[in-house]
Amino acid sequence: MKDTLGVLLAGGAGERLFPLTRDRAKPAVPFAGQYRIIDITLSNCINSDLRRVYILTQYKALSLNRHIREGWGSVVANELGDFIEILPPMQRVSKSWYQGTADAVYQNIYSIGSEQPKYVLILSGDHIYKMNYALMLEQHCETGADVTIATLPISPDEVAAFGVVEVARNGEVTGFIEKPRETSVRSPFTPDMVDVSMGIYLFNTDVLLPELIRDADDPKSKHDFGHNILPDLLGRYRVQAYNFVDENKQKALFWRDVGTLEAYYEANMDVAGVSPIFNLYDKSWPMRTRPYQYPPAKFVFGEPGRTGMAINSIVSGGSIVSGAVIRNSVLSHDVRVNSYADVDSSVIFSHVNIGRHCRIRQAIIDRDVHIPDGTVIGYDPQEDKKNYFVSASGLTVVTRDYSVYENPVSPMFLQGNGGTGT
């Protein structure tokens, strides 16, 4: 892996995660309480011994940049030439924003070339999975491939959201179609399934750079790996498929694109469950994030009808559950849930204060929101639409704009009673 440079694409606008991405980049959206989505891919990099990584940012990147700077800058040994470094759009070879995934890499071609890597691994910063990239590199070298595409078997009725990869019995890629409505292609290894791209590509550098330049000079191109680069390589280079090996070590393969509110919500509900498919507690494949200096979570009051407790839930540091009940939920840092409140099947971001007697169900509460006493959310979609964002599936999202809170002060400063809550 010392000869490999990772290029992590983290500049997408994330429209399908609106309103969570209105003020932040998609990879910066909180996940599982204390993490950000990008932490999962970066943890895979560190666990795979990939220690040189460029992160290409673009839209609304302030919180993402701060998270990377304060949480990941010291993970690698800079004195040994290792780095996890943010590359914002610099317009060195173009006067435009990134026009596609391939154009994003092309616009940083000088930075890539300056590192002189033998291999370049293209990654995405908005997927949830565990993968050892070193195993992919090992196969890449053994097969003599010029390009290797990580693939995942899925049901044929899901192909419209993926790049379909046609694979021969020897693993060579013979066809690639980006997001077709349907396909007759089937996997040679699981005949009732279709092999699709995971958005992870390993290139020989001497193949990647000329292809990026060639694509940049094509005015008809969308400058995208799936639409242009990969299909154009077939027949000219040896392109291999790498079957996803899941380090999660469960019966079912776990790879999630959390690009929609529903997918994001379900992934959070999974990690909070009794037997989650995505295991955050696996010491052999640790998940890392920025360290936060908060006190431990606390649960107070135990009288009948006013017992502070959390069931089948994740509660992060600095949070206080004060005579309230939390079920099947994920609480980020510095959350206060006050007496007689009931929170069920919800995702609560940091610095949220939930007042007394509130009832919240199947909701996502964005950071810095104060929920007034007695508020009911998630029980009447038509009523919720008057004040909040409600998705097509009925998931309620409360942000500072949509909520009816009156005091937007961080809950860390709302109480002066030594953290007992109300």
UniProtKB/TrEMBL annotation:
The keyword Nucleotidyltransferase applies. This is Glucose-1-phosphate adenylyltransferase. Belongs to the bacterial/plant glucose-1-phosphate adenylyltransferase family. Keywords: ATP-binding, Carbohydrate metabolism, Glycogen biosynthesis, Glycogen metabolism, Nucleotide-binding, Nucleotidyltransferase, Transferase. Pathway: Glycan biosynthesis; glycogen biosynthesis. The record marks 58, 97 as: Could play a key role in the communication between the regulatory and the substrate sites. It comes from Edaphobacter modestus. Pfam families: Hexapep_GlmU, NTP_transferase. GO terms for biological process: glycogen biosynthetic process.
